[in-house]
Amino acid sequence: MLKKVTLLVVVFFTLSSCVSKKVYQELETKFNKLRASNSALIKEKQSLLSAKKALELDLAKLQKEYDALLAKKQNLDNEYTALKSKYNKLDASYAALSTQSSQKLADQAKKNQELLKQLEEKEKTLLAESTRLEKLQKELEERSNQIAELQALINAKEAQMQKLKDAISKALHNFEGKGLTVVQKNGKIYVSMENKLLFGSGSWAVGAEGKKAVQQLAKVLSENKDINVLIEGHTDNVPYKGATLIDNWDLSVKRATAIVRILQNKGVDPTQITAAGRSEFLPIDSNKSAKGKAKNRRIEIILAPNLDEISKLLND
């Protein structure tokens, strides 16, 4: 799907110097779908964290029930031991009274039978509780293993993202102070490049210095096939004045796809990449000053882990 969208944009802007309203609307619809996909990834992570919390609550509940059953089993063991001791004493007494009257022997035999019946009932109850306790213990272990496996996957993803951030920071350290920043937040990595590093005013052609930075980033990303890459183009609020494009929407998309081509040409799997234009509508600073506008004119490369394994574990 992404290849089709990218090819459509490339063919459109190559063969036509002006864009029809219908095509613009199609592009806008595709962009909205891409933005919804990005939001869905964030919601999916929150859903995973909520699922983990629910499993932990369930585990705590099972642990409490297990402890209660264990205490009950202990009480039953004690009762069983006391009854068995009492029975043994009565049995010994019965043997001693065997020389006494038949009536007393009959009474003693009746008591013995009653005690035997109670003992058998306690044994049955104890067996039932032991079986239930074993079943609960097994379920408790299964839940514990599931939570441990889920936590291990989450930890692995976090470690993977930290390792990726370190690799990116190392690869791009030569561009520090030149309009490039690398930040990790919300489980994702944000590589921000200001236009002064990448493009000339109103242009979507990547300059030599900016191309070098993107190529060095591509080298790292090409070795991480498990990462989703979202390229967002951003502009300031100054209207586009060129003749080739319509407005800042077109310009932001063209700049995003220009970065996509460099990444793809340097070995990044195109199925990992999504291109999007955000125009002037997601500024990070005020557009009232030249400094703020410069910050708003940027490319955001957002790297997110693939969460398919965690989703599969939760569904299973």
Considering the chains and any ligands shown, give keywords for the structure:
316 residues, 5 strands, 8 helices, alpha+beta, 67% helix, rod-shaped, disordered N terminus, 60s Ribosomal Protein L30, Chain: A, 5-stranded mixed beta sheet
Write the layout of secondary structure elements.
Blueprint: H1 2-15, H2 21-96, H3 102-171, E1 180-185, E2 188-194, H4 195-198, H5 208-221, E3 227-234, H6 248-265, E4 273-279, H7 290-296, E5 298-305, H8 308-315
Helix pairs in contact: 2-3, 3-5, 3-8, 5-6
GO cellular component, one term: membrane
Coiled coil: 24-174
InterPro entries: Bact_OuterMem_StrucFunc (IPR050330), OmpA-like (IPR006665), OmpA-like_sf (IPR036737)
What's this, in brief?
The protein is of the alpha+beta class and 316 residues long. Helices cover 67% and strands 11% of the residues.
Walk me through this protein's architecture.
- There is one protein chain.
- By secondary structure, the chain is an alpha+beta fold.
- The protein folds into two domains: 208 residues, OmpA-like domain (60s Ribosomal Protein L30, Chain: A); 103 residues.
- Helix content is 67%, strand content 11%.
- The protein is built from eight helices and five strands.
- Strands 1-2-5-3-4 form a five-stranded mixed beta sheet, with helices on both faces.
- Helix 2 runs antiparallel to helix 3 and helix 5 crosses helix 6.
- The longest helix has 76 residues.
- The radius of gyration is 36 Å and the shape is rod-shaped.
- The two termini are 28 Å apart.
